[in-house]
Write a structure and sequence with these properties.
Strand content: 5-15%
Oligomer: single chain
InterPro entries: TPR-like_helical_dom_sf
CATH class of the largest domain: Alpha Beta
Helix content: 55-70%
CATH superfamily of the largest domain: P-loop containing nucleotide triphosphate hydrolases
Mean pLDDT: 84
Order of helices and strands: HHEHEHEHHEHHEHHHHHHHHHHHHH
Structural class: mainly alpha
Number of helices: 21
CATH topology of the largest domain: Rossmann fold
Radius of gyration: 23 Å
Low-confidence stretches: 1-10, 190-207
Strand order of the largest sheet: 2-3-4-1-5
CATH architecture of the largest domain: 3-Layer(aba) Sandwich
Shape: globular
Number of strands: 5
Distance between the termini: 53 Å
Length: 462
Amino acid sequence: MMIGIGSTEAGGLRERLQPTIDHIAQQAGARKLRLALDLADGFVFLVVVCSSTRASTALQLWLAEVASLDRGSRVPVERLSPYPFDPIAAGPTSLEAAELAELVLPRLMAPSGADGGLTFIDAVRAREADAEAWLLLLMRLNERRNAIASALGGPLTLLIPPTLEGDFSRFAPDLRSIRSVAVEIDDLDDAAPAPGTVLLNAYDDGYGRVEDIQALVGEVERARMQAQSGVPAVRRMLRVLLLRLVGAKRRTGELEEAERLLDEAGEIDDSLGDSGGRTATQLVRSDLLIARGELDEAAGLVESAIQTLGETGDVWALADAWGRLADILEARGELDEALRIRRDEELPVYERLGDVRSRAVTMGKVADILSARGELDEALRIRRDEQLPVFERLGDVRSLLVARANLASALLQRREPADIHEIIELLALALRDARRLRLPETQQIVQLVRQLGEDPDAPPFA
């Protein structure tokens, strides 16, 4: 079932797909992937949403070629997929979850041994009937992300169709959070690239819009019905959705409903004997306590989770837990210890693992603390140099508009007349994106515009 790129060259596949390869080479997303692979030193995780199997095949051919050119020698490539590499060849009539896991997981845990090679997981041809098998594999990858990163030691690229994009975000949230690059690639025949809002919704943890929350409620109801089968993987899927809905209810102030949903997730953890699930639920419970103003009790839960995660070796989750503790300390005014945690416990983990997005988010929180301590120049430098370029490169629209608004707010705090032009430009960009995507941050940005004495409904803001 494993198909390597090299074995397909003799059949004239490259010649047949050359127009598509040329089209892909001109796309900004493809250039981002090339740069990320060229700069990769150890494990990095990249996500590509491909509009067609032809685009996926052409992209892999192109990346294999340019990687060899960039490095000056042939780069080994391994493609893990149950589907043929040739986009017009017949594929399997059915796909079983166990077969798919047997194909992919052992190769990731015991790679071929070629240093610096490219590894692709290609799911772009997945049909509706294959979705459950891929969903379960995504959950397995999410659970084993640390071991995979350690064993693989090189870049891993996941290629998925738009139909699996939302599932990837919802059922492999921790794996998704460590992506270095997430892009969309379109085919020659596409009239237009896939809507940017699709990617934004998939990666948006906020669920701030009413329609997003309603859709999530519907997913929870469907998962409850499926979980009646008693299949552990399906029950884990339900727990993930419940925790996301808890977060949405917390943000809308429905704390009692959030508490009830959290108890339901906890019952699933208990029935499965899932210690990792209990820790995740415990951390989400700490968020509810913070929302209620019960900071000391929340800190106790987070500190307990830190101890557990330290014993299990889940470094990403441990860094996230440390970040939650820093949030609590910052809220209590303990800025020095919060800053120490950001610098000593969080940032080194993200830097070591190549998690550029989490590093940028954490640097923004460092800037928040520095601003509170009056160190405005360094806070501004961080927002300009350490945050904005990262979110621009990742194409993370929401994080980018928030970072722009925060930079504008910091410049307002400095009260320098020379900053006015930059403040207006930043807020105009942020407000246009927030309105286009109908995000809850819109009103906060409108308030910043009014602080300037400007009209948010007039140019350049409208």
